[in-house]
Amino acid sequence: MANPEISVIIPSYNEEGNVHVLYEKLSSILTNSKVSNYEILYVNDGSKDDSLLKIKELTEKDASVKYIHFSRNFGHQNALRAGLDHAKGDAVISLDADLQHPPELIPTLIEHWKAGYKVVYTKRKDTNDLSFFKRLSSRLFYKLVNYLSETKLEEGTADFRLLDRSVVEALKNFKENNLFYRGIIPGLGFKQIGVEYIPNERFSGSTKYTFSKMVRFALTGITSSSAKPLYFSIYLGAFLALCSFLYGLYAIYISIFTNMAVTGWTSLIASILFIGGIQLIMLGIVGIYLGKLFSESKNRPHYIIEEKN
Ligand code: UDP
Ligand code: MG
Description:
CATH topology of the largest domain: Spore Coat Polysaccharide Biosynthesis Protein SpsA, Chain A
Number of helices: 10
Order of helices and strands: EHEHEHEHEHEHHEHHHE
Number of strands: 8
Strand order of the largest sheet: 7-5-6-4-1-2-3-8
Bound molecules: uridine-5'-diphosphate, magnesium ion
Largest sheet: 8 strands, mixed
CATH class of the largest domain: Alpha Beta
């Protein structure tokens, strides 16, 4: 069979309630848009619910549905990578399984692609429907990543985008662990364009990004695109050295010109605790990069496929 014109890849983790609804929407939209043929590729990221069963039901009645099933949960970005590795389309569209990324936008993405754009990314328009915490954490995330790294992320861009085959092939050469697609794609070059959309409510289930996953994602985003945090220890070290020098001058002054030299226990303890805390933070930063080096040097697979069709 000839390669499909469009591949749609869907990272799915415990999305049993969304698999069928999303399929219905996607297949009707893709059939109605002027696409010659397409494939819908579910990447089942080690779901513990019946997602795999639901996906297999689809493959039985529709040959354009493909799936990859991981042996365990490898995370959203690795699921995306597996999708990009296996998609055969001339253009590859990635979107979330929970219908928050409106499939209705797909014809627009395809139009821009046919007009010659190689990357059509999307920008989420924040509405008040989104929870306050989600909006706040997302703003903070983009601010922090932009402040700390070399590539500039546009606020509200997520993993809902169309990539031309040439871009997919370029991305496959990025072999590092925990690839941070959002940070890397803007810097790839190619003709890029952004499209705005209003996110839907999650259709079924709850968010798979727990607070700790979100913090880890932010740390990955920052440390994979920049070494700036490493310089913090130098700046902070210099600042603290200056402070202690000034304090030293003060201490000398006190002991020579006054008779209250033994006081100062509180400030001593406080400064020891403070400097100790800073040292731990800085060690942590160095540790993150060291850990990255360690895991890269092992060169392990990014995901393990248990079965696929
Ligand atoms: N996801 C995944 N693996 C994970 C976590 C999430 O494949 O370990 C998928 C999830 O099924 C969804 C997408 O990534 O399709 C985005 O996750 P979610 O909707 O939970 O994130 P949110 O929209 O709340 O940021
Ligand atoms: Mg979601």
